Amino acid sequence: MHADHALVCALAYYSDFRMTTVKFSIRPRKKYFRNSGLTESSEMKLNATNFLVPPGEKVNLRKWATKTESFCPSKEAYQKLLAEHLEKMSKLQRLLYASDRYSVLLIFQAMDTAGKDGAIRHVMSGINPQGCQVFSFQQPSREELDHDFLWRTTCRLPERGRIGIFNRSYYEEVLVARVHPEILAGQGLPKILLEGKSIWKERYRSITDFEAHLHRNGTRIIKIFLHLSKEEQRQRLLARIDDPDKNWKFSAADIKERQFWDQYISAYESCLTETSTSHAPWYVVPADDKHDARLAISQIVLETLKDLDMAYPHADKARRKQLQEIRESLERQATP
Predict the structure, then answer these.
(1) For residue 315, is pLDDT > 90?
(2) What is the pTM assigned to this prediction?
(3) What's the number of domains the chain is made of?
(4) Which of 46, 109, 161, 216 is the right S-S partner for 97, CB 3.0 to 4.6 Å?
C-alpha cells in the first residue's frame, strides 16, 4: 500500500468518530427486524427487541433492514413522539443520578455518514449535561499506544449516576484495524501477536470479558450499530458536496473508505456475532431514515433505563426530623 493511501486510511480511522402491530414474514420467534420478506410497506412496532442481535446468532447484515416504514406519518408527529421520549428520558436520568447505583454506557458504531453525531445531538438533547459525557476518540497518543487497546476508553467510562457516550469506541480495534492491517502493524504489538491467526478472536474475548466486568459493577452497556445502505451513503456524500453548508463535513477519506465497503460489512458481521451478549447486546438500527433511527435509539435507551432498579434516596427518621427543623427555621425568617 502506498504511503499516502495508508495515511488517508489512518486519518479516516481516527476521525470523529404510526406505531402499529408488527407484521413479520419470518418465523415468529425472531422478533428482531430483518430484511427478509419485509418491504417499505411493512409495519413495524417501535420496540427495542426488534433491533436486538440475539447472543450467539450469526449475523448476516443483508438480512437486516436499512429502512422501515416510517414510525410516524408526518414530521410533526415525529417531533411530538421524540419530545415525549426525551421528557421520559430526562426524568429517568435524574433518577439515575439521584440513586447513584448504576451508570449507562452508550456506544455508537457505523459506516461514515450514518448519522452518529446527529443521533447523539437529537436523542440526548433532553439530558442534563451535568449527568452526561460524550467522547469521540481521536488519533491515539504515544502514551495510549503503549497500553492495551482498551486502556484509553477505560479512562473515559462514566461514573455511577451518569450516562457516557462513545462516538466510536474500542470496537474500532476489531473493525478498521481488521480492514486495514497496516494500522494494526503500526501499534507496536509483539510480533507473535501480529503473526498469529487468533488475534481477532482474542480481542473479541477481551471485549466481552471487559463488558461482563462492567456489567457486574453496575454499568449497563447499550451498543448501537447504525445500519446504512451503500446507496444512502452515496446520496449523503453527494449532499455534502452540493450543499455549501455541509461542505465542511466532506472528507476525501470517506471516499477512500467507501472502496472497502464489503470488507467493513464482513468485519461488522463478525463483530456483532461475537460480541452481542445478554449483558451487553448489540442493536442494529436501520439508518437510512434519520428520524426513524433517532426514535429507535431513544426507545432503546428508554427501555434500558426503565429496567434498572432505581429509587430516590429515602430519608430516614433522623433526616426527616432535621429537615422539619430547618423548615421551621426558614418559616420564622419570613419577612412580615
Answers:
(1) no
(2) 0.84
(3) 1
(4) 161
